[in-house]
Fold this sequence. Notes:
This protein is mainly α. It has helices spanning 14-36, 42-56, 58-65, 68-79, 85-115. 77% of the residues lie in helices and 0% in strands.
Amino acid sequence: MFSNWLDESKEHPFLIKAMVLAVVAVFAVIGLIGLVLPIIPGIVFLALAALLLSRVSRRFAAFLHDQPMWQKLTRLWRSQSFLTATERIKLAGLYCVRGLVDGMDSLAQSLRRKAQ
């Protein structure tokens, strides 16, 4: 059922689209919260939501591919073709964790300054 769901040229079943859209909604909410709170890396979740949405919506994929920043990120991602898919996922996870740790550190420093 989930095989080749990343293929943009293929029409996906309604159930898969609904599940992906639910995940996109969750990522978008977390991303918006992350833009306000320094603990959560909001940009990462918004980028993941955009990536997933582009996989199920041809119109959004066309819009996204026209954006210069997305083109830059896509070139960067493809330049790392020596990494396997598993290694790429691990790298993305490490970036998320790093953002979370940096956000927590920023919050702790802010709280220390207010306490003084």
